[in-house]
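Quick note —
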Amino acid sequence: QERQLLTVEHGYDVPKDIEAAGYTKKYTEALDNAARVYLKIRSLSPEHAQYVVPLACKVRWYINLNLREAMHLIELRTTRQGHPDYRRIAQQMFLRIKEVHPLLADCIKYVDMNEYGLERIEAEKRKDQKLGISK
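Predicted structure written out below.
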């Protein structure tokens, strides 16, 4: 697997939670400011410009997997606790495998195709209970 250099040129996502909190304008302004700084630095050094690319920016990856590796990645990254972006990509990978190789897709048993808000909230609640922080 390999990724391209980090860049602002592929755009970015605005998380639903940012929108719901009413911070879309401030969020996009911050990302646009970072993009301007990135473009200035990139003209001198594309490698160093990567350091100012916000995590919200989209990244392109090239990945080569066999079925066992794809199964592991898909089952791991589609769990409720998975990051929404990873989950969406892993779900799309599963659907593509199912479309092209339906019999092989049947081997991938633990795929969660649901969408969640506050993905980690239940895990955090369980942790708090174990620590005696909440009921």
